[in-house]
Inverse folding.
């Protein structure tokens, strides 16, 4: 990267409510392609059959990380029956027999890791962010235009904010920081940030980061510059 990456921190007020809150991060660069066939071949031959068997015999609350995230959201003041983290939404989609959305190589790799780990991940275009980043709870009246949603109410929601305000959360990211494939600049590497929203301590997030580094490299052409876990 040509510039220093932003610093990432967690608001102590949020962590006082749920001490096991951690944030994994990966700074990486890659071209953003409309689709990566190798990723979808891997999903069809490995990930999808395993998850189909697991989902057929497992309650959603017992899927990896889902129960913990629901309890954390309840502690923060949000009804986990009304707002779901993105990995739970993906599991529900598979259980219903629906196809996964195919967005672009970066977002699809993000979703693959989310399905395999149970964590909600967010992947953001660093060129669309400004200043340092803080994981905090949403305030009264805070909203943003979510991806596929007109407006997302962020009150008491764990969210990631930069100097311009909130741009991401475990349920639905904002349109502002979303990654859009550019056919005319498809071969040009883009500076990206992926975060793992964790509510079960450091070790599971570290395992998810290792998985993400491998999948991003194999299926999204990633060059990883830094990764780690923020726990305070």
């Amino acid at each position: 990267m040509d510039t220093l990456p932003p610093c990432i921190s967690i608001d102590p007020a949020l962590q006082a409510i749920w001490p096991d809150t951690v944030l994994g991060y990966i700074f990486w660069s890659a071209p953003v392609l409309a689709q990566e066939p190798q990723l979808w071949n891997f999903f069809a031959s490995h990930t999808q059959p395993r998850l189909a068997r697991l989902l057929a015999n497992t309650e959603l609350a017992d899927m990896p990380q889902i129960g913990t995230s629901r309890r954390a959201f309840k502690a923060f003041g949000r009804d986990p029956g009304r707002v779901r983290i993105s990995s739970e939404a993906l599991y529900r989609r598979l259980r219903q027999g629906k196809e996964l959305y195919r967005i672009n190589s970066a977002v699809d790799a993000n979703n693959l890791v989310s399905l395999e780990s149970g964590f909600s991940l967010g992947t953001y275009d660093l060129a669309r962010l400004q200043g340092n980043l803080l994981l905090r709870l949403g305030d009264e009246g805070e909203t943003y235009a979510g991806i596929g949603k007109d407006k997302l109410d962020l009150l008491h929601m764990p969210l990631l904010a930069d100097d311009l305000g909130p741009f991401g959360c475990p349920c639905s990211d904002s349109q502002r920081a979303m990654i859009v494939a550019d056919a005319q600049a498809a071969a040009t590497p883009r500076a990206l940030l992926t975060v793992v929203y964790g509510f079960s301590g450091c070790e599971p997030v570290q395992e998810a980061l290792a998985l993400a580094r491998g999948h991003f490299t194999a299926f999204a052409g990633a060059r990883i510059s830094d990764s780690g876990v923020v726990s305070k």
Remarks:
- The longest helix spans residues 37-57.
